[in-house]
Amino acid sequence: MRIVFATAELSPIATVGGLAAAAAGLVRELRIQGHQVDLLLPDYGGVELVDERISTLEVPSWVGPARVRSGRHAVVGDIHLIAVAGIERSHPYLRPDGEGWPDNTERFLGFSRAVAAFVEANRPDVVHVNDWHTATTLAALDGSIPSVLSLHNLAYQGTAAADWIPKIGPRGLHYEWWGGLNPLTGAIALADRIIAVSPNYSREIRTPEGGFGIDEALGFRGDAVVGILNGIDTEIWDPATDPLLVSTFSALDLTGREANRRALSERMGFASDHVPLATVVTRLTEQKGIDLLLPIIPVLAEVPVRLAVLGSGDASLSAQLHAAARSHPESFAFVEGYDEALSHQMFAGADMFVMPSRFEPCGLTQMQAMRYGAIPVVTAVGGLVDTVIDLDLDPRQGTGVVANAADPVAVMAALFRLARRITDTRRRERIQRRIMSIDWSWAEPARKYVTIYRDLVTTD
Fold first, then answer.
1. C-alpha R_g of the chain
2. pLDDT digits over 263-293, tens only?
3. What pLDDT band is residue 460 in, cutting at 50, 70 and 90?
4. Is the Cβ–Cβ distance between 234 and 446 less than 8 Å?
5. What pLDDT digit, counting tens, does each position of 104-141 carry?
6. Into how many domains does the chain fold?
7. Are residues 18 and 159 located together in one domain of the fold?
8. 286, 169: one domain
9. Is residue 395 part of a domain?
10. Backbone angles phi, psi at 42, to 5 degrees
11. Which domain covers residue 394, as residue numbers?
12. Which residues contact 416 (CB under 8 A, 6 or more apart)?
């Protein structure tokens, strides 16, 4: 089967959020399973390809010249990098000062129009677009090629002025939304299938509370909206072979895990004893709920629990976390920034992993943490519901603890429940072996996508 797969992010070329890892993981697995995937990404610049070929696409004049660099990337393999007016930037979305590029709308509407031209020129079996950045691709297609829209985060919709509607393609009127253009609502109306990145998220987004204003548009599509849980790269995230760890270990032999715990405690300035150690690896945004931890920090020593946070983002949150670390160095530490090696070490050295999200379409870090034996404490939202079974509800199959609300009291209660439970070493290790044995790979999710592709092609 031949699939055109268009995305604004792709790890490791252009990584901002979970979209990058999800796109890379799914495409890689689809290719492993024998399918031809034409992978389309904006040409942000600076990407070297082997056996590079350059071609052009027929696009409207407002898009500007559209050029395609095709070749082989050292990590992701075969790829097509599409350049349109203004798409080449140092960051996909943000200026160096952290503000969005003022022409983001034009950049990605132009990219989507070029994607449509590529699809028309190559006529794949299925076209698969992701989030708002590629959603207007379907406006320029006639619907004869089956289409799939993946929703990774409904909070970002790329709305624009109504004067864009006639420009984006013959089916542009489907994108009219409250007097303007909404890339997602149009693609939701036109795509043959809409796939949310977890089953629970597919339900949440069809409610007023979780639909970010477009729940009715999703509700109109009925059974066309489904949820498929993302996977993770189980080769990168493998404690048995991870070169970034002090000592490797596995579900069959946890011996090496203690060395990672000692090393992490030392790096964070904590005593190396039996007090439960919790970590957080995250972006500092309102979505991730890191502010919910701030009222908890002063009482951590009483539980007792030690907590270390690694993350970057909101300057105000960062300042508050730094202040908390200075005030409570015996029980709280904060490392600002993005540090790939340290993130691996914080999964491998922690007893618990905390993810207090206000909403979470799928979540990847809770799966990565479980792969390394860090038992999750999460809120009952999105993909966290699909990946974490509360130990109090099912002691034999439980994989973590679920807070019943996204607020400091509920998160603190969940943290305390888990800390109390894992004081028994044998019980803790049983849970760790259980969660480390779960298959979080892309193999099964990719098979589910292929089933959908085949159904669309068969019924077309």
1. 23
2. 999 999 999 899 999 999 999 999 999 999 9
3. low
4. no
5. 999 999 999 999 999 999 999 999 999 999 999 999 99
6. 2
7. yes
8. no
9. yes
10. -60, 145
11. 257-436
12. 303, 305
What distance in Å separates the CA atoms of residue 135 and residue 160, rounded to the nearest whole number?
Answer: 13
Q: Quick one: which H or E segment has residue 263?
A: helix 257-267
* Residue 408 three-state SS: helix
Q: What is the pLDDT of residue 152?
A: 97
pLDDT value of position 272: 86
* Residue 256 in this model has a pLDDT that exceeds 80: yes
* Helix%, strand%, coil% for the chain, nearest 5: 40, 20, 40
Q: Are residues 205 and 268 in the same domain?
A: no
Confidence of residue 459 (pLDDT cuts 50, 70, 90): confident
For residue 291, what pLDDT is reported? 97
In the 8-state DSSP scheme, what is residue 101?
Answer: P
Q: What is the pTM of this model?
A: 0.95
What is the number of residues in the chain?
460
Give the separation between CA 73 and CA 460, rounded to whole angstroms.
33
Query: What is the strand order of the sheet 66-73 is part of?
Result: 50-57, 66-73, 77-83, 36-42, 2-6, 126-130, 147-151, 193-196, 225-227
Beta carbons within 10 angstroms of residue 328's beta carbon: 17
The answer on 219 and 342 residing in a single domain is no
Going by the DSSP 8-state scheme, the letter that residue 145 receives in this structure is S
| Mean per-residue pLDDT of the chain | 97
State the pLDDT at residue 11: 96
What pLDDT sits at residue 442? 98
Distance CA(341)–CA(241), nearest Å, equals: 14
Q: What is the pLDDT of residues 59-93, one digit of tens each?
A: 999 999 999 999 999 999 999 999 999 999 999 99
Residues near 111 by beta carbon (within 8 Å), at least 6 away in sequence: 8, 42, 82, 84, 87, 133, 134
- 223 shares a domain with 275: no
Closest to 358 (Cα-Cα) out of 401, 405, 310, 321: 405
Closest alpha carbon to 105 in 15, 182, 220: 182
User: CA–CA separation, 455 vs 460, rounded Å?
Assistant: 8
* Prior bond of 199 cis (ω within 30°): no
String of DSSP letters for 421-450: HTTSHHHHHHHHHHHHTS--SSHHHHHHHH
Distance CA 252, CA 80 (A): 42
